[in-house]
Design a protein that fits this description.
By secondary structure, the chain is of the alpha/beta class. It is built from 12 helices and 12 strands.
C-alpha cells in the first residue's frame, strides 16, 4: 500500500508555504482528517480555522483570493460539495476567484456513516459549473505532480481524494502531462477508463483479462474536467469497447462524460460502472465495493461481457 493522497497534498502545501507567503490553508474543523495539523503549527499566519461552517469556508476563501491570496479550502468532500455548492458556483466560479477546493474522504470513504457522509454526486455537481477544473488523482506520485502544477496557476479547481492510503500505480520516475490522461497499460481489445483508487483495480482487471487472451488498455482520467477527449476518442476508435469505473454515482460522473464524447465523436460500446442511483448498503468502503461488484474481477467481467 502506498501513501494517502491527502498526505501528499499536505506535504506540497507545507513545502510551498515558505516560498509563497500568500498561500493560505483553511479548514472546517478538518485539520486532523486533512493531515494539516503540522501545517497549522508551522505556519499559523498562513492558516485559518473556520469551524464546522463549510459555506463560510468557501466564501472566506473566495474573499481572500479576491485580495490576492492563494487559498486552499480543505474539508470532507461530502460537505464541501453539497453544503457549499452555491458559494462554489457564485463566489468561486462566477466570480472567477483562485480558490483550490480540496475534498477529502471522497466517495464512500466514510463507509458505514451512510449517505450523509458519502460524496457520490460531487463530480456531477461541480463539473457542471463553468470556470472550475475537477481532479481525482490515483496515487501519491500523480497527486504530487498535480499539486505542484496547481500551486503555479491562478484558476479554481476541485480536487477529490480518498480517506485512506491508496495503492501505488506509478513510480517516482513516471512522467505525467497536466490535464492529459495517463496510459497505465496499452491494449487493443477493450479500454478501461478509471479515476482515483479504481485505477489500481482497473490495472489488476487488465491483468486478469490478459490471462484470457484479451488485450486491455487502461487509462487514468485523473483530469475529469477538462477531460482528455482525444484519449477517449482514440480508445473508442482503436478498441471499440470502453468500460468506465468510478467511486461516484453512475449518473453525471466520468461514465456520463465518456458516453457523451463517444456518442458525438466515435460511437462504441460503453459500460458504466460505479455506485447505483440508490441508497447504498451500510458497511465499510471495501464492503460497499464488493457488494456493487467493483472489484478487479467484477471490472474484468464487465469488460469481457462487451466483447
Amino acid at each position: 500500500m502506498g501513501t494517502a493522497c491527502k498526505q501528499i497534498i499536505a506535504d506540497v502545501l507545507t513545502e510551498t508555504a515558505p516560498k509563497d507567503k500568500d498561500l493560505v490553508v483553511l479548514c472546517s474543523d478538518s485539520r486532523g482528517s486533512g493531515n494539516m495539523a503540522p501545517f497549522y503549527e508551522k505556519f499559523p499566519e498562513q492558516a485559518i480555522e473556520v469551524g464546522i461552517a463549510e459555506q463560510d469556508l468557501v466564501g472566506i476563501s473566495a474573499g481572500l483570493a479576491s485580495c490576492g491570496k492563494h487559498p486552499y479550502a480543505i474539508s470532507p468532500a461530502s460537505f464541501l460539495s453539497t453544503r457549499s455548492i452555491e458559494q462554489i458556483k457564485v463566489d468561486v466560479c462566477y466570480s472567477k476567484t483562485n480558490v483550490k477546493l480540496i475534498g477529502i474522504s471522497g466517495g464512500v470513504s466514510y463507509g458505514a456513516l451512510g449517505m450523509s457522509h458519502h460524496a457520490c454526486q460531487d463530480i456531477a455537481m461541480v463539473s457542471a459549473i463553468p470556470n472550475i477544473r475537477v481532479y481525482i488523482p490515483s496515487d501519491q506520485y500523480l497527486t504530487r505532480f498535480m499539486m505542484e502544477e496547481l500551486v503555479k496557476d491562478n484558476e479554481a479547481a476541485y480536487v477529490r481524494v480518498s480517506r485512506n492510503a491508496t495503492e501505488d500505480v506509478y513510480t517516482p520516475e513516471t512522467k505525467f502531462e497536466f490535464n492529459k490522461a495517463v496510459t497505465v497499460k496499452e491494449g487493443t481489445d477493450v479500454t478501461i477508463i478509471a479515476v482515483g483508487e479504481f485505477v489500481s483495480r482497473a490495472k489488476k482487471a487488465a491483468e486478469l483479462l490478459a490471462e484470457k487472451g484479451i488485450s486491455c488498455r487502461v487509462l487514468d482520467m485523473y483530469c475529469v474536467k477538462p477531460i482528455d477527449k482525444e484519449a477517449v476518442i482514440k480508445a473508442a476508435e482503436e478498441t471499440k469497447h470502453i468500460v468506465t469505473v468510478e467511486e461516484h454515482s453512475i449518473i453525471g460522473g466520468l461514465g456520463s462524460m465518456v458516453s457523451t464524447i463517444t456518442a458525438e465523436n466515435a460511437p462504441c460500446k460503453v459500460k458504466v460502472l460505479g455506485l447505483p442511483d440508490a441508497e447504498l448498503i451500510c458497511g465499510t468502503q471495501e464492503e460497499i465495493f464488493d457488494h456493487e461488484g467493483l472489484t478487479p474481477e467484477g471490472i474484468a467481467s464487465a469488460a469481457e461481457s462487451l466483447l
